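testing teh design pipeline on a random one, pls ignore if ur not involved
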């Protein structure tokens, strides 16, 4: 679930698999030990304890719902804003998210919204010249019954409670079982999606002045807000109106390979302070190395 935190379909698949597998652990344990004398009496005490555990009760009810009633669509929200050195700096908390939207498109859309500026002011340095400052989001998954508790943290707690029972069963049988839950690390690391992990040009901007000049292969080249033919055009590059800035060095796995992303420093000889992030059709573009800040 943590590895696929920002991929909706994969996350839901892993969540469903976890609910069913976690609930099956004690069922398998019962089946394997039912023939042993005294097990029923011993296990009755643990059943009573588990019945009072709110996490395990919810785990079972959600498992029943997933298997017998409907597909599980957890609710999602996010913090979006500026990050510095990989940590939240300032921004907006509690942005509602479409639970069926992957995090990368959400990042692109929210970034474009803030890059439009508040009045004539940008939300952060448009050229990312302050090292390790960037846009980013922290996503949260939850369920109405969890009342705001992060979903992966709930699953970790529930799993730890199951491991406690399993460990006790091993001890009752005269064996031993490590009670440590090895996924008890903070989910915050997985919940964060930073701009530089999606757009390599951001790290290039941290390193120094503009590295590329962008020209049209034909008469003009459209620079769009999103990697889509229907997306709004922010700038039109011509042989006399070129763009300078930082361009991604390789095709992205998140959108069509024909599109490249760019962080604009200047357009037609003037520095750009708003709407700096754009996409263009790399097959229609000529990319040259910038020789100097004014080239």
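output:
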């Amino acid at each position: 679930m943590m590895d696929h935190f920002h991929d909706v379909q994969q996350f839901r698949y892993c969540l469903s698999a976890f609910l069913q597998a976690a609930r099956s652990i004690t069922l398998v344990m019962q089946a394997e030990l039912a023939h042993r004398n005294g097990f029923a009496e011993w296990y009755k005490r643990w059943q009573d304890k588990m019945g009072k555990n709110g996490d395990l009760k919810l785990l079972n009810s959600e498992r029943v719902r997933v298997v017998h009633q409907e597909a599980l669509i957890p609710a999602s929200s996010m913090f979006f804003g500026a990050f510095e050195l990989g940590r939240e700096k300032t921004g907006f908390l509690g942005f509602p998210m479409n639970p069926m939207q992957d995090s990368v498109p959400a990042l692109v859309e929210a970034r474009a919204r803030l890059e439009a500026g508040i009045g004539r002011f940008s939300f952060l340095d448009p050229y990312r010249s302050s090292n390790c400052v960037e846009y980013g989001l922290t996503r949260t998954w939850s369920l109405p019954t969890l009342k705001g508790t992060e979903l992966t943290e709930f699953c970790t707690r529930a799993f730890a409670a199951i491991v406690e029972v399993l460990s006790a069963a091993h001890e009752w049988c005269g064996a031993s079982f490590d009670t440590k839950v090895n996924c008890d690390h903070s989910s915050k690391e997985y919940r964060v999606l930073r701009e530089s992990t999606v757009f390599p040009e951001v790290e290039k901007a941290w390193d120094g002045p503009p590295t590329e000049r962008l020209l049209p292969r034909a008469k003009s080249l459209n620079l769009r807000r999103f990697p889509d033919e229907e997306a709004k055009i922010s700038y039109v590059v011509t042989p006399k109106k070129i763009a300078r800035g930082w361009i991604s060095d390789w095709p992205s796995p998140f959108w069509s390979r024909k599109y490249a992303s760019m962080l604009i420093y200047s357009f037609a000889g003037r520095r750009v302070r708003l709407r700096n992030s754009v996409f263009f059709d790399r097959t229609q573009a000529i990319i040259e190395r910038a020789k100097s800040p004014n080239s």
